[in-house]
Design a protein that fits this description.
Layout (H helix, E strand, L loop, with lengths): L40 H8 L1
């Protein structure tokens, strides 16, 4: 893995080294992971603004 560049002013960096011990996610009951669909656009925009 290459060395990261020095931080710039006001940088906030969150890093986690990933290795072979990465556990699969544990989702809450009823949660289903899926990709973004165009019908999600309005709800996502509302959430983020």
């Amino acid at each position: 893995m290459p060395e990261p560049r020095p931080p710039a002013p006001n940088d906030i960096r969150l890093r986690k080294i990933l290795d072979d011990t990465l556990a699969p996610p544990r989702w809450p009951d009823g949660f289903v992971m899926r990709g973004f669909e165009a019908a999600d656009a309005l709800a996502l925009h509302t959430l983020l603004t």
